Each structure stands twice: as C-alpha cells, then as structure tokens.
Amino acid sequence: xxxxxxxxxxxxxxxxxxxxxxxxxxxxxxxxxxxxxxxxxxxxxxxxxxxxxxxxxxxxxxxxxxxxxxxxxxxxxxxxxxxxxxxxxxxxxxxxxxxxxxxxxxxxxxxxxxxxxxxxxxxxxxxxxxxxxxxxxxxxxxxxxxxxxxxxxxxxxxxxxxxxxxxxxxxxxxxxxxxxxxxxxxxxxxxxxxxxxxxxxxxxxxxxxxxxxxxxxxxxxxxxxxxxxxxxxxxxxxxxxxxxxxxxxxx
Length: 251
Hints:
Blueprint: E1 5-16, E2 19-30, E3 34-38, H1 45-52, E4 60-65, E5 68-69, H2 77-80, E6 84-87, H3 99-110, H4 115-128, H5 144-156, E7 162-166, H6 174-189, E8 193-197, H7 201-207, E9 210-215, E10 218-224, H8 225-230, H9 235-250
Parallel strand pairs: 3-8, 3-9, 6-7, 7-8
Antiparallel strand pairs: 1-2, 1-4, 4-5, 9-10
Helix pairs in contact: 3-4, 3-5, 5-6
C-alpha cells in the first residue's frame, strides 16, 4: 500500500564527467522492508546509496522519504541524515575519543538529546551487540569487526527511519564478518528498514525481503529474495549467481 512506502526513487540519473553511473533507477522501499542490492563491482550500487543520503548530487529524477522530496536543491541534508543512517566500509571512528564518546557525539551535539537519555540508549545497544565492556576503550583497541559493530550502534543512536549499509564487511577478515552480519540480521528481525549493498550471497539470501540486481547502472532484475536466488529471470542475473556459486565452491 502507498502509505507503507518509506523511500521512493523515481527515474534517478547520476553521471560523472559525462559518464553515466545510474540510469533511470526506479525503486520503492517499504517500512520494515530489507532490500539488498546486488551486482558486479562498478555497477553503481554504492553510488545509489550515496545519492539516497545526499553524498552525491543527482542529475535527474526524484528521491522521496516518507512522501516528501529530499533531492531538491534546497534540501537540508543536515536534518535528513538524522533520518537516514549510513554505515560505510570504513568505520570512521574518531581515534582520540572512546567508543562511548564516539557514539554519543551525534545524539548529544547534533540532535540535542540529553546526555542521560543518549547514554542509556548507547549502553543498551552496546550490551545487545556484546561490547558494553568496551565502552571506555579507544578504537585502536578494538578489532575490525568490533569497530564496525560500534559504527552500526553509532548510526542507530540517531534513531533513523532507514539504515543504509555499504559493503560493511568488505574490509574485514573473514572470521570477523559473521559478528557484523549477525547484528544486521538482528536489526532485520526487529523490523528496521534497511537497504544493503553486499557481496555476501548467503547473508543476502537470509536477510533480504527483496533483491535488486543492478548492472551497468540499470536495474536488470527485481524480485523477492528467495525467488531471485532460486529462479532468476534474466540471463545476466543467472550468470552473476553462477559466478558466485563457483567461487563459493572453490573458496
């Protein structure tokens, strides 16, 4: 139903120096839905997330959040980014601040939450991901997987309406990947609206409600997750999945 649509993208076009990166992207994300974006490297997946969060200007089209356009020139991205949380490959934690200080910076300084309220939420989330005992540690004292989990908590403490994840496990050692994916699976079960770019096929299949397959800056296929993985409609999607199956068997 229309009222359930949280994020809507209409005919989005993005180019760099005359080179088309995204062409005619149409996408709807419903409240509580987990959308996984798949595709080969360089196809435009990360660019799409950056356009949604205002980190890249678009050349044409419209992006609506909760029925309100957010892609117009006058958009207050400072305000919008409090509603759209984003976690990147790099953790971007301030090295001179403790884990707790990193997490509290946004809610207290940007959203003007009371420190007590923000602290309660931060500690509850840290406890949920098993890192409460690290709250007074510094980023250099944490593993890559731990730092990425802290980055997720930091974004969640802004109480966003939707979370964007851009290849958050790409820079991690294999043994650290699972702990981060488990946190994201937990968020999905709690009903968090998410758009996820990933190369982790098993995770994508487990977490996604819908899969959007992009190639060459265009949406080639879009379907329910299980249907995409078991019965892809396009030859390009079949080819993509076959490569991953081959790699998983060899790996």
